[in-house]
From TrEMBL:
Molecular function GO terms recorded: phosphoglycerate dehydrogenase activity
Organism: Metabacillus flavus
This protein's pathway: Amino-acid biosynthesis; L-serine biosynthesis; L-serine from 3-phospho-D-glycerate: step 1/3
EC number of this enzyme: 1.1.1.95
Catalytic activity reported: (2R)-3-phosphoglycerate + NAD(+) = 3-phosphooxypyruvate + NADH + H(+); (R)-2-hydroxyglutarate + NAD(+) = 2-oxoglutarate + NADH + H(+)
Pfam family, one: PGDH_inter
Gene (name only): serA
Protein name (record): D-3-phosphoglycerate dehydrogenase
UniProt cross-references to InterPro entries, sorted A to Z: ACT-like_dom_sf, ACT_dom, ASB_dom_sf, D-2-hydroxyacid_DH, D-isomer_2_OHA_DH_cat_dom, D-isomer_DH_CS, D-isomer_DH_NAD-bd, NAD(P)-bd_dom_sf
NCBIfam families, A to Z: PGDH
Amino acid sequence: MFRVLVSDPISRDGLEPLLEAENIEIVQKNVAEEENLAQYDALFVRSATKVTEQLMNQMPNLKIIARAGVGVDNIDVDQATRKGIIVINAPDGNTISTAEHTFAMIASLVRHIPQANMSVKNREWKRSSFVGSELHGKMLGIVGLGRIGTELARRAKAFGMRVAVFDPFLTKERSEKIGVEKHDFEELLNQADIITVHTPLTKETKGLLNKETIGKTKKGVYLVNCARGGIIDEDALCTYLENGHVRGVALDVFEVEPPEHTRLLEFEQVIATPHLGASTKEAQLNVAYQVSKEVLLFIQGKQVTTSINLPAMSDEAYKKVAPYDTLAQKIGSFLSQYMNQPVQSITIEYEGTAAEIETAYVTKSMIASFLKQRMDININTVNAGVLARERGIQFIEKVSDQNSGYSNSMKVTIHGEQTTSEIKGTSIPHFGERIVSVNGFSIDFHPSGHLLYIQHTDVPGVIGNVGRILGNHSVNIATMQVGRKEKGGEAIMMLSFDRPLDQPILSALTELDEIVFVKAIEL
Ligand SMILES: NC(=O)c1ccc[n+]([C@@H]2O[C@H](COP(=O)([O-])OP(=O)(O)OC[C@H]3O[C@@H](n4cnc5c(N)ncnc54)[C@H](O)[C@@H]3O)[C@@H](O)[C@H]2O)c1
Ligand SMILES: O=C(O)[C@H](O)COP(=O)(O)O
């Protein structure tokens, strides 16, 4: 049974993909009210539930956190990543609703609609108190031209506004295509009549509009925040509302929600909504449906496509990656068992068609498989990179355009404290994965099952001696390959069996004069 806890109000209809599937139990209850958090495999949230490290510690079975919306600033993504928990969101399900809400706020702000509405309901008729401004011909400054910023720009243009944009990641081509003016931040501050922010809340965007930058705006500017509380500094806003530099402010989001203690709400020129950007039937259905489908993919062992902490990959893309993923896992596990020593760095080199795939994913998969042999915690492609770095293991990925004779190959080199080891493998369509070289010895074997690696001197009789000892212990050899670099030098043997070998057999083999090293490997 896969158990899902839905902590915030999320559209029940949108949960349909999970409700219709078998062996999934869905409980709709706030985390604060649930006593047995440890039983859940998945957690669904919106912006209200704070997914802290402490909460994750109470949920040791948690595998996936689904944010039914865009912003993940209420989730400690770094901690989730460390713990190997996938974090997904619904990036575009609420774009239109939020853009429409922002536009409604802008129109309300310049025409004083909320204030006029209150006044009329108080039985007043003060027409001259609510004289507004036209949007037509004004300059709207958009900070952050992502999904919402772009939709907002389209609506503003339809109202005859000039649209100026600041977004450090915006190309000239894209701004021309959308029909907006690309500016630097200072220019936008100096020129815009209305400024609206549509960035995520990050270290860089926190307080982006602050005492200094708001000071550079036009006198009488309107400011709008329907993205995240804190992008516009609330204390600075109060200062500039008080001295009249800022004419009006529209806020859907606050530094602390609900905003019980902020002075901002005391200003007549401030209009506010309680984080309603995504609160439409359509958006809620979209986001819940989007994340439910993703979680179902995860349960079915398929690739999720909207993960915050995994390389994004479609099912189609994963089909191409899958053979190399298997090969990488086999090599990672083999090398980890073979090299029983601390490791300093891991290099993985891709060649041929292996170099054309999503290599970042495969590299993490190989590292996860390597670390799994050494650590007794949940390790997967989500946390492999972080855990390796935390343990001082450097990992390097190389993509080569050389051709060493295979249509594809993957070579993993591990620098340990005492020695360096290296394995090269290839994936043959309809035939599977093969290891073609171990520490420079050419060989050819299928990396699977109960294996025995033997390093020995290349002298007559060694194969017979190994066979005799195994026979004496009633061990049947399933496959056997040998490889050497030169006649009479060092050589290796790779054998596979139907059952694991026990220690007395390994000790008996090690006692043979011609044998240098013996290692049983389970793949
Ligand atoms: N009020 C609501 O209910 C509501 C609803 C949905 C989203 N949001 C908020 O809106 C934000 C934007 O959503 P989106 O879907 O458009 O995201 P998005 O990722 O599509 O767009 C964000 C844009 O911000 C830009 N950006 C990043 N750092 C910047 C910086 N320092 N200066 C200028 N631009 C910068 C990025 O390049 C990107 O184009 C979300 O992160 C979320 O916090 C709020
Ligand atoms: O980031 C988002 O998607 C919005 O802020 C919506 O948040 P909500 O799901 O709490 O309405």
